[in-house]
Amino acid sequence: MATAAAHQTARTHGSAGQEGDIDADDTYQRVFDATVAADERIEPRDWMPDAYRATLVRQIAQHAHSEIIGMQPEANWITRAPSLRRKAILMAKVQDEAGHGLYLYSAAETLGASREDLLDKLHTGRQKYSSIFNYPTLTWADVGAIGWLVDGAAITNQVPLCRCSYGPYARAMVRVCKEESFHQRQGYELLLALSRGTTEQHAMAQDAVDRWWWPSLMMFGPPDDESAHSAQSMAWKIKRHSNDELRRRFVDICVPQAESLGLTLPDPDLKWNEERGHYDFGPIDWTEFKEVLKGNGPCNEQRITQRKAAHDEGAWVRESAAAYAAKHSTRTGVEQA
Ligand SMILES: [Fe+2]
Ligand SMILES: [Fe+2]
Q1: Measuring CA to CA, which residue among 55, 46, 54 is closest to residue 28?
Q2: Which GO terms describe its cellular component (predicted)?
Q3: In degrees to the nearest 10, what's the CA dihedral of 16, 46, 107, 169?
């Protein structure tokens, strides 16, 4: 174990010692390992391995991109929401997603990443976002299915991230999860209203669930034995549960909820397994997942085109904010002088 003094020095040291300073490197690594092992948080000014930093930047950026791209399929329905109440709920939800993107880009910035660079990587396809948002929202019921299933899967994934070893990411997740829980409930309530409505409304809800169920299961990522980054992320306590474990948990939560909704999940193999204490479910079509990931999903191109257009249209806002900040800092400089 490192001494308390070494611990403090290493934790607040921004980079590993001088070049070739093997002892210092070793101490920093040991302090980092001990901090993670003790379930304490790594903070922005603490020393951390380069690969840990790179993994977090990649994951947080992908998460941030998913939040802002995820605004598109639902924003598509704001003008067509069937009532003022539904419109207000949907607007609040889409705004929440924008906020989630902002917290997450800020968390990535604490690791030294630049927001401009991350957005550039999104726009040029060098960083990914969740494939789920490459599916279209064909009917109003899709807004309900997204809330119930997509936000539901997001919560299952994100609640354990509140205990992630990197402090700023973990803290951002606390608020994100509270808001996601509202998103999930509004989706469930919307589907319930449709399911209890006319025959056509019930059919519309069922059709939406039929289309969103399998892509939602794919949100947990590839099976554990094919997941490239999982083992290291779990050792670093960035990730707390495996993809398959979280997927199982999600299925177990959804089955009774589907029953209460009066809707059927589109999987004939879905059956309670007494021995395992979980539901068994049918095989996932990973070929489809890989195609969507490669950029061949129904909406990949449209999502990025719209994102770039929104970014370009917002250029004047960024320029104005930067000009205001520059003016403000000059004034402050004069006042201080
Ligand atoms: Fe979100
Ligand atoms: Fe959400």
Answers
A1: 46
A2: cytosol
A3: 120
Q: What is the mean pLDDT of residues 51-65?
A: 97
- Asked whether 148 and 188 are in contact (CB, 8 A), the reply is yes
Cα radius of gyration (the chain): 22
Structure-token pair, residue 153: 């899967």
E-state strands within 151-307: 271-273, 278-280
CA of 293 to the centre of ligand 2 (A): 21
Task: Tell me how far the alpha carbon of residue 101 lies from the centroid of ligand 1, in angstroms.
Answer: 8
* Shortest-distance ligand to the CA of residue 161: 1
DSSP alpha helix (H) spans, the chain? 4-12, 22-37, 50-69, 71-75, 84-109, 115-123, 141-145, 152-158, 167-195, 199-218, 230-235, 243-261, 286-291, 300-313, 315-336
Ligand 1: distance of its center to the CA of 242 in Å? 21
Contact criterion met (CB below 8 Å) for 134 and 299: yes
- Three-class SS of residue 42? strand
pLDDT digits (tens, 9 = 90+) for 233-290: 999 999 999 999 999 999 999 999 999 999 999 999 999 999 999 999 999 999 988 8
User: Which ligand is closest to the CA of 146, given by its number?
Assistant: 2
pLDDT tens for each residue of 275-299: 999 999 999 999 988 888 787 888 9
Ligand 2 centroid to 27 CA: how many Å?
41
- How far apart (Å, rounded) are the C-alpha atoms in residues 265 and 207? 10
The contacts of residue 266 (CB under 8 Å, 6+ apart) are 209, 210, 213, 214
Torsions phi, psi for 288 (to 5 deg): -60, -45
Distance 220 CA to ligand 2 centre (A): 15
| Structure-block tokens of residue 147 | 């809330």
Other Cβ atoms less than 10 A from the Cβ of 283: the count is: 7
Distance CA 126, CA 293 (A): 12
| Residue at 279: amino acid letter | Y
Burial of 87 from C-beta contacts in 10 A (0-12 / 13-18 / 19+): middle
